[in-house]
Design brief:
This protein has helices spanning 2-33, 36-52, 57-69, 73-86, 90-106, 110-123, 128-141. The chain is mainly α. It starts with a helix and ends in a 14-residue tail after the last helix.
Length: 155
């Protein structure tokens, strides 16, 4: 069991260091906009918070949002996948699906993104963001959902 714990801790460290490495690659571009210091500080604060409470959905959600703001979809996906393990409140589960949908839109996998946004609506039927993204997919890719996005989904 102790070997497993050591292995898990190593994997967690490798994951976070890979996220940091990806951030460092974008740092030069961000420095031009004056955002590098702010984002680096936010990333460091969130990593510290995750060390204190590694199962906090709220912290994982904020951590994922940093990568979304930076348009780092690979890191957003990995972070959201981690968040999904701990999400238990409907709004956090819905946000996970919206993040997955966002990543799929960036990869132009619109049909899969539609599924994610509808799953999101199952957990947060009032989400304007999900409905707006579905309209964006309709306009961009010409994909018409099987049913109306304004139709409320029963949970």
């Amino acid at each position: 069991f102790e070997d497993f714990i050591r292995f898990a801790k190593t994997q967690e460290f490798d994951y976070r260091s890979s996220a940091k490495t990806s951030f460092d690659k974008m740092k030069k571009e961000l420095e031009e906009d004056g955002l590098a210091e702010v984002m680096s500080a936010e990333l460091n604060a969130l990593e510290k918070a995750l060390r204190w409470n590694p199962v906090s959905s709220g912290i994982w959600l904020e951590y994922a949002e940093v990568f979304k703001c930076l348009k780092m979809t690979d890191e957003l996906f990995r972070t959201t996948k981690e968040l999904f393990q701990y999400a238990y409140q409907p709004e956090y589960i819905a946000k996970c699906y919206r993040n997955f949908g966002y990543c799929l839109i960036e990869e132009k996998k619109y049909r899969d993104a539609v599924i994610c946004y509808f799953m999101s609506l199952m957990y947060d039927s009032e989400s304007m963001q999900a409905e707006e993204e579905l309209m964006y997919i309709r306009e961009t890719a010409g994909i018409e959902p099987a049913f109306s996005i304004t139709q409320k989904i029963a949970t």
